[in-house]
Amino acid sequence: MREGSAAAGRKNGALSPCAACKLLRRRCAQDCVFAPYFPADEPHKFANVHKVFGASNVNKMLQELGEQQRSDAVSSMVYEANARIRDPVYGCVGAISSLQQQVDSLRAQLAVAQAELVQLRMREPNSSSHLASSNHQANVGESLWSC
Amino acid sequence: MREGSAAAGRKNGALSPCAACKLLRRRCAQDCVFAPYFPADEPHKFANVHKVFGASNVNKMLQELGEQQRSDAVSSMVYEANARIRDPVYGCVGAISSLQQQVDSLRAQLAVAQAELVQLRMREPNSSSHLASSNHQANVGESLWSC
Question: Mind listing the UniProt keywords for this protein, alphabetically (chains A, B) (predicted)?
């Protein structure tokens, strides 16, 4: 959608530059590599990416990718740049570390809950419900290891 | 340790440049901002950070931080740069997305296990073990929400 809107903007206005060319004060060519992803109405998006990665590096990274991959690459670079501006020391590595801690904590809690389920099932007098519960436990175990 | 080794290297050899100055082909000054974190024997570390962020941006980002924070900032930038070189489309945002999926999946599995524990405990005939289990469940629940 942004691609269409940026292309239309340049076709209709002819001289309306994308956010990148506006910041870099250069002519926005018809085949500008930034224009489809950095529309003029979102100037902060390019400003942050430029501050963290540098326009020249972003240009190079986009040129090295196929057109189908560029939109995702820009989104991930914008995410990383915003994270680095918010947290200049850890950037989005801070989020990775926090998520990894959550995964470790949840795995430990799940192991405790599953161990307790096994104990409770062993005490169950009804053998048919015991069988059903055991099958269920096997499924939970499988999904845990597939993470 | 790296700070000491880099400083000693420059004091003893006087002209031995750090990995950054070597790559940028410039004189490595006594107060070089890169030298403590990019020793000459780890050239790929600076090469990747330079390729992704650009030496000028890394320099600026380090100058804006206190000396105590620079080592962590370099480590997180090296991590991000390596991830972007390994995966030019998603970089370390790919790891964030994968970890977030693991957290969601583990939370769902824990909720299922906890619901099953509640059911099994309600069927338990022994009230003292029921009480002990209930207390345990409250703790597990608290740790879940503290994530």
Answer: Coiled coil
Report d(CA A145, CA B2) in Å as an integer: 38
pLDDT for residue B123: 81
Q: Hey, what are B121's tokens?
A: 């405990």
The answer to whether the Cα torsion of A11, A14, A16, A21 is positive or negative is: positive
SS (H, E, C) B103-143: HHHHHHHHHHHHHHHHHHHHHCCCHHHHHHHHHHHHHHHHH
Among A18-22, A140-144, B105-109, the minimum mean pLDDT is found in: A140-144
Average pLDDT over residues B58-62: 95
Q: Which of B58, B71, B90, B98 to mutate to test the interface with A (most CBs of A within 10 A)?
A: B90
* pLDDT, average across residues A77-90: 96
**Chain A closest CA to B26's CA: distance in Å?**
21
Main-chain dihedrals φ then ψ at residue B65, nearest 5 degrees: -110, 155
DSSP state string for A9-57: HHHHHSS---HHHHHHT----TT-SSTTTS-TT-HHHHHHHHHHT-HHH
Q: What is the mean pLDDT of residues A76-101?
A: 96
Nearest-by-Cβ selection for A143 from B57, B105, B114: B105
The whole-angstrom separation of Cα B34 and Cα A74 is 28
Of B54, B53, B59, nearest to B33 by C-alpha is: B59
| CA distance readout (Å), A60 to A55, A57, B15, B46, B76 | 9, 5, 33, 18, 22
